[in-house]
Amino acid sequence: MADDSTKTAPKKLFIKTYGCQMNVYDSERMAEALSAEGYVTTENADEADMVLLNTCHIREKAAEKVYSDLGRLRPLKEARPGLKIGVAGCVAQAEGEEILNRMPLVDLVVGPQSYHRLPDMARAAAEGRKTVDTDFPAEDKFDHLPAREKPARGPSAFLTVQEGCDKFCAFCVVPYTRGVEVSRPAERILSEARGLVDRGVRELTLLGQNVNAYHGHPGGLGGLVRDLAAIEGLARIRYTTSHPNDMDDGLIAAHGDEPKLMPYLHLPVQSGSDRILKAMNRKHTAEAYLRLVERIRAARPDILLTSDFIVGFPGETEADFQATMDLVRSVGFGAAFSFKYSARPGTPAAERAAVPGAEADDRLQRLQALLTEQQRATQQAMVGREVSVLIEKPGRMAGQMVGKSDYLHAVHVTHPKAKPGVIGRVRISASGPNSLAGIWLDS
Ligand code: 5AD
Ligand code: SF4
């Protein structure tokens, strides 16, 4: 930029990221977009010239939390009136203009599809003009965001390949906040991936709200995975989050014969009751999910499966809940997230009568106990096994390093060769509550 701002001291940008991995990726891209305006990121909100809250709206109270976080920024803004405050992400999309009405200290509100307009909005803010952009523009924001120039921060990176969702599960705000499904062209993804690998990235996690609905490659997500696997230096590929109905044969086959595709799959099922699945508009049965799991395991027997569950969906009876517990017992998950249903305004389920809170709490506890037991058993079964570990960063103890196994378990090791970005063979020696310990064998 020829603009004077880049010649003076850099402006500092603080981004707080809520919610999913896609927001983590978006925050990185927003920082890159604003670096063209002379902003460098800081970890300290107190010294920032701009604070951006990259928000999430998936579950209840998200908007209220954002408003209370904004309230907490008030003293900062009073102390330094030049401070610019922005709200991005799904709460920005859902609330729009309302944020400016309720929080006059906010300078800009930008929805997830408009991040490429941030530099203009930052300039407007500098001139004292407030802006709101929550359009779903026809252009692809990624075409308008600057190419990724910054050095990658670690050996593992996120890469968004598609956004939005057409599934309209009855409880979910994503189709409203992120819009309909849009896939990025494979060529763009491949060139971004090559750039990341040149900067030391060894593992890519492909992101999308409904990532396996990806259709920017004639071979779908499986085809994209195979093309990415051909990139020299890229060692590992993962993807998240998937819908069971979009697990096609090509993708399942890739799990069987593409060694760079890691043996890990997050496959939300939400419920084990056909009645509830129907009410949720999930468009598959529990049996179909179980059969799908069989096919995936036939391709890759050691795959670690994780899932998402909602308990207390409107109309859920104890028998429905037991069907969920049965499904969990038959699959055996390596880990899972479980949530108490929360009504999201504007979604079809929000109109329906809720399950009493105490009952839903009780179900959540029972489900979480079972899932924790399965997680422990899965981790325990790793003890004695050899896995590959991609070292990411120092651990908490002196000399110790931590990385991720093929199965996405955090693994602690101590060895001179265990440096960030190195992939080594490790024998798992112990399992703790949330991570494993291992002995370095080679690299
Ligand atoms: N209530 C509770 N959980 C929800 N999720 C999405 N919407 C809701 C809601 N209204 C959960 C689903 C989804 C995960 C990302 O969040 O399990 O898979
Ligand atoms: Fe939401 Fe996922 Fe359902 Fe799409 S498939 S509506 S993102 S829960």
TrEMBL record:
Q: What is its main location?
A: cytoplasm
Where the record annotates domain TRAM, the positions are: 380-442
Q: Does the keyword Metal-binding apply?
A: yes
State which Enzyme Commission number(s) the record gives.
Answer: 2.8.4.3
Q: Identify the keywords attached in UniProt to this record, alphabetized.
A: 4Fe-4S, Cytoplasm, Iron, Iron-sulfur, Metal-binding, S-adenosyl-L-methionine, Transferase, tRNA processing
Q: Which residues bind [4Fe-4S] cluster 1?
A: C20, C56, C90
Record-annotated MTTase N-terminal domain positions:
11-127
Localization, per the record, is: Cytoplasm
Q: Which GO terms describe its molecular function?
A: 4 iron, 4 sulfur cluster binding; metal ion binding; tRNA-2-methylthio-N(6)-dimethylallyladenosine(37) synthase activity
Q: Which GO terms describe its cellular component?
A: cytosol
Function statement: Catalyzes the methylthiolation of N6-(dimethylallyl)adenosine (i(6)A), leading to the formation of 2-methylthio-N6-(dimethylallyl)adenosine (ms(2)i(6)A) at position 37 in tRNAs that read codons beginning with uridine.
Its recorded name reads tRNA-2-methylthio-N(6)-dimethylallyladenosine synthase
Organism equals Allgaiera indica
